[in-house]
Fold each of these.
Amino acid sequence: MTILALETSCDETAVAILRGRELLASEVASQIAAHEQYGGIVPEVASRNHLIYAPELMERVRRKAKIDMSNVDAFAATSGPGLASSLMIGASIAKGLATGFNKRYLAINHLEGHLLSPFFGNGDVKPNISLIVSGGHTMSVRVRGLADYQLIGRTVDDAAGEAFDKVAKMLGLGYPGGPEIEKRARGGGSARFDLPRSMLDSENFSFSGLKTAVRYLLPRLRGDFVADLCASFQQAIIDVLVRKTIAAAQQCDVDLVTLSGGVSCNREVRRQLGDACASKGFEFKSAEAWLCTDNAAMIAFAASLRLQAGFESKVTEEIDPNLALA
Ligand code: KG4
Ligand code: ZN
């Protein structure tokens, strides 16, 4: 079974081809430079760029995979959540190809792509507590099996990655902020600044108080503080993520904890959640680093599992910017 998948939910254009469990090609075109000058993502610019990049990437993956479009068995695309004008590009291309070649179409939830990515090349989907931490989302989900998801907790304000990005901006660091903060935190003392860990007794998450605490602290700081502040901020996020994820795993009585999404690129996040799981007796699987940030390989993988389980979408199915996972 050969699947071609597109991911255009936000500002990354991505295309991948998966044959069975073998990834034949996966390409991502980042639009960071195009949006940097505006200080944030401009939907109109994102969709125009998807239109430019998607055909180029399609041709590149096709050549890399050495296949003809007529040999693809199913076309998949992210159908939400995300920016409507961006989602529309990838979904329209996949639907057009599925219709033209008379093949199957699969509409994939972006969050399911992240949620399943720890299993890419790494065994069957087992019941687990899944922590998805990205720039747009922070949520813990109880996974009973493929397509059987129950939301446990979600952020009530900023996503964890968004907090990394906003604090990095306050510090005058580049975008995306997560990798910049991680780099500087390496040489810093995480105990120097006492930053808030919000809503510890809730299943939901909140990171805007932490961001505001950094904003109020900044004007009072002098001298060499960036490494310590980055380390303290990163630790505050990690403490919250670890505590809530372990609590969810204990409450749901699962054996496995999984981690995915852009923030899971962070080595301290992976290490500390992995250590906490080991000490509490949970198995731990994290998405491989190259699969953490937005990509189409995870969409192709989710589509392949869904196809195998008998799922299929209609080409009349609309994109949904607010598509829920559960
Ligand atoms: O999954 P993703 O590519 O996009 C969304 O679906 O939102 O995640 C992007 C987010 C950004 O906020 C970025 O700052 C964060 O992931 N991120 C990191 C790291 N690498 C990327 N956050 C912390 N540490 C990192 N190393
Ligand atoms: Zn994402």
Amino acid sequence: MNYNKKTVRDVDAAGKKVLLRCDFNVPMAKDGSGVITDDKRIRAALPTIQYLLDQGAAVIACSHMGKPAATFETYVKKQTEKGKDPASLTEEAWKQSLAALSLKPVAARLSELLGREVLMADDVVGPDAQAKAAALQPGQVLLLENTRFEKGETKNDPALAEKLAGMAELYVSDAFGAVHRAHASTAGVAQYLPAVSGFLIQRELEVIGGALANPKRPLVAILGGSKVSSKIGVINNLLEIADTIIIGGGMAYTFSAAQGGQVGDSLLEADWMEYALEMLQKAADKGVKLLLPVDTVCADKFAPDAASQVVKAGQIPDGWQGLDIGPETVSLYCDAVKDAGTVIWNGPMGVFEFPAFAKGTEAVAEALSKTDAITIIGGGDSAAAVQQLGYADKMTHISTGGGASLEFMEGKELPGVACLLDK
Ligand code: ADP
Ligand code: MG
């Protein structure tokens, strides 16, 4: 995939209507009060919006939020699958479910952050959006409703993409969190408008793309998280690129079991043991150093207050489960990143949500904060862990897209990036 894409700086936006795809899929309070519990994603979009406004553009922003049922039929189908009696489902209830996923609270917050009015459309490409977009002046901002209120969005329907494009003269994508999806507003629309990236995507492509295509070596990849099955693509792709691969988290036990270790009640994906052996072989064939835990902190139950003990890897007693890497492994892994040129980290080393089992993840975060290496954090939970443990501003880059960064590291083509103009 070509990562060298045109950005907002490569085009003239002055006097133009710009359709800007953002990732405003922010967490909202569960009580339906419309309170945004974390506005990080809105803040992250500000530099591109501000730049476009400064250039004299009129900004038509759009985003998805959650997973609304775009039609009453799909609402009934989804709720029935969840065990609801179809006879009890009303159009009223469906409309309420949509209202809970309206972008109106985002428009209000964006307006506060920008310090200027943000107009809100009642629909995505309907009469209200069309009229407001047509009347929009340079320096003004309009936010369209949740793009997934249109059933064509997730189907990448060309008719919807064309209507979205019809409101603007330029398409700017800054929704890195959604570039792994070929939807009408993330990819389809680029068929009808010149398409460039905003600053968020530009930075993701520069840093992650740079590390994958031409890393400062040695390149050390730290891979953890819960499951081998969700990280196979990343392990396989990074084995082609990295000098050292470090395995931690729940997936280490599948590797351990594959080598004949006792893993007790630890997370184990028996179906992936053979694959784990293949990866070990591939590493050996390619001369990639692959490090596995040498000890483990195991617990007598999956709980924050579990009793714990440190045991050697592959010697976890029955009834116990590994929830973190052990102290010897910590020093081994911290040594391995010391002289790295680049470190890519995806997946926590243990169940960091429980403080008693966060030590491995914290030690690795601390080690990364002290290296001179380019440090890149991908993956939603890894980013959350680094933030929660207070090391966020010590890293070169924390990706703004969980699923997207994973697919990026798997070496897959990202439809929302591929559709942008090459430099
Ligand atoms: P990311 O979102 O960064 O890609 P994953 O989703 O793959 O990461 O994995 C994160 C989850 O893995 C965390 O919720 C963490 O608790 C869990 N995890 C890490 N180590 C273990 C373990 N030893 N046993 C069970 N779960 C684990
Ligand atoms: Mg995750």
